[in-house]
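User: My advisor, Dr. K., asked me to get a structural model of this assembly before our group meeting. I'm new to this, so sorry if the format is off. These are the inputs:
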Amino acid sequence: MADLNVKLWRGDENGGELVDYNIEAQDGEVVLDVVHRIQATQAPDLAVRWNCKAGKCGSCSAEINGKPSLMCMTRTSVFEPGETITITPMKTFPIIRDLVTDVSFNFKMLKRVPALKPKPREADGTYRMYQEDIERGQEFRKCIECFLCQNVCHVIRDHEENKTNYAGPRLFIRYADLEMHPLDTNDRLSLLQDKMGLGMCNITKCCTEVCPEHIHITDNAIIPLKERVVGDRYDPLVWLGKKIFRKSKAKTTVTE
Amino acid sequence: MSDELNEIHSHDVVIIGAGGAGLRAAIEARSLGASVAVVCKSLFGKAHTVMAEGGMAAAMGNVWKEDNWRVHFRDTMRGGKMLNNYRMAELHAKEAPDRVYELEEWGALFDRTKDGLILQRDFGGHKYARLAHVGDRTGLELIRTLQQKATSMDIDVYMECKIVKLLKDSSGAVTGALGFWRNTGEFVLFKGKSFILASGGIGKSWKFTSNSWESTGDGHALAVRAGADLIDMEFVQFHPTGMVWPLSVRGLLVTEGVRGDGGVLRNSENKRFMFNYIPEMFAKETADTEEEGDRWYEDKSNNRRPPELLPRDEVARSINSEVKAGRGSPHGGVFLDIASRRSPEYIKRRLPSMYHQFKELADVDITATPMEVGPTCHYAMGGVRVDADTAASTIDGLFAAGEVAGGMHGSNRLGGNSLSDLVVFGKRAGEYAAKRALGMTKDVEVDQAEVRDAINEALAPFNRSQGDNPYKIQQEIQDTMQSLVGIIRNQQELEQAQVEIDKLKQRVNQAGASVSTRRFNSAWHTALDLISMITVSESVAKAALLRKESRGGHTREDFPKADPEFGKINHVVRIVNNEMTVTPEPLPQMTDELAEIFKDDVK
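Assistant: The format is fine. Below is the predicted structure of the whole assembly, which you can bring to the meeting.
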């Protein structure tokens, strides 16, 4: 088979450059295989994250010919013969080295999510939940935390300053998972609007497009959350209900 | 870049590994009031648990009310060919349901029955449909639920940190773990009163494996090098159904759920060959016609289970024999067919990840055509020898839970018993590690000279400017273990393996870091992983040579039958005066009350 021309971004926080590698093509490979073969034969110190190589762990996120993708789920057969494969690290996060970025922003935001507060069990000691009531939640919980949606979101991709007050699409589906959870009694809507920047999302759906799990991030999570916030704030009945039942309603706990 | 130690963290309980067992241990220890550190080699939430597919076994009786812990216990022991630590199997069967219910309370959304309870699916070796699951991504649900619970509990998580050595005080108790940050290459010392190994498996030492890069046996190696006992290292599970094509994904797991949900195995002659491989031990409860096997899915009371759902060791060996006999698929496996047996809608709903995986990686639509599958290295039954109730290892201050611990699964693990093992013994390890720590009054001491030695040892690959390529050595280890200590073994090959491993030990000591930077230097990381890989490889090969019988995940073509005398012993691996030794020791004896459960069985 013909050779593959690969450009890998090499460098660290002080800067770097695209470096050319030439390697024999092999049948049935994904981009991560090619990167591994380059690492094993030409660039042993190459920094790259990976774990499962099966699209299940979300470790090998990168930008391949400009498109945010998992390296383990991008087959080399999708490229034209002779086409150069250019692999760069995710742009939104600070560089550590080569293809490895500092994604700690996401973990910090996850730590600020108020936890599930489950309602009590039924009299027989069980929880009864029906399949149709959890299907939406199961869709959100497919998330493998590859952070490609965070990477592609314009609110933080082009505006570093927004990272202090904007959670991002991965977090919004986590909030939606909790808000729609049949057992949950906690309330996170004010936090979402006031501290997590839900209103800053202008639903361009870039996140949905790059999601390797095909989660409908915008339609099924972000838009319904926005509707709930609006309903919660401006619906006079909800407002009245909040005034009257304030004491019985679970208080939002924020860890910051 | 500093050769000095500039960072020290002190905690009551230090947990090495952030998969299901490590996280469940962390939650338990923290809830008892201990300060807890979780140290993991990858990012948080990427541990190998995430790849578990089919489900977690627990006799909740939601689908078959006849199910109970005794049936689960019996299935587990028979699956392990009675070599299991009976007390671990007993605790596991009794406690698994509560561990599942608590995950539900922490937010896990398991698939449901029509009545709104947790749905349970069929799996190999389990008499009743028993696996709580979420489609075919149960491991992700487990790890995410535990991760989210732990995140809400003020537990310190130290990510992308590799532990290179356990350090002991003058009394012989483990009091420290030295590691380095993969991002910076700087060293860090964790001081603690109790340490829990929850570092997973060893599968990276084989060429065709379902395991990720992390499964280098770090915990096994740390423990045995610190003086702890390992047991049952000869038992390595080859999962019967890994992908065989394309070559780049060879070994990638195809969940047993495919068979649990109706899939069958066929050879190149389109025969369901498993009917030719039903062992006597399971004959009484296995269907002998296709019709009976097919009826079983709907009516378990009047039919026996199909042979495709025999325990994994039986199915893997049978596939191996078919391929050897020339009845394999084009790429050297056999066919796993669910397309002709279930509707496309059913397959996509029950097995979404498998559908996705084959479509994206092999261009195969599993709702229309059969999959090609073959055995892949999957799981280490052997591991750190622990006390069943407390998860304590044989040295003070060190506990172990999950795949790194040995005993629970005997010579062969049943599918679905791993995720439940993680939470049952993760909780126990967390509890007893915390109790030990909270009961200690004096501060822990770490020997500075030992720290210095460990740092020097870890930096050695940088001193080998002409050092060998660590990836090349890694591949040689994998080739050696695959060809000489694989699914079918014999005396001559195992002896050859000892020779090769001795040579490879020298080679590991010549692996270089390639360049001088310590910042996320993958060559350096791989060079250090080799130390763990060669240590566990040696232990597996040595124990396998001594076990002159076939049982579970250890098959000897020169001793094809199980030997009752070997059924009475575990092989214990330890390092004595820098030499690895293997000693037979008697299996713990089951109580009469438990033995009663097996009185009518064919041995």
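One thing worth pointing out at the meeting: The mean pLDDT of chain A is 91.

User: Perfect, thanks a lot.
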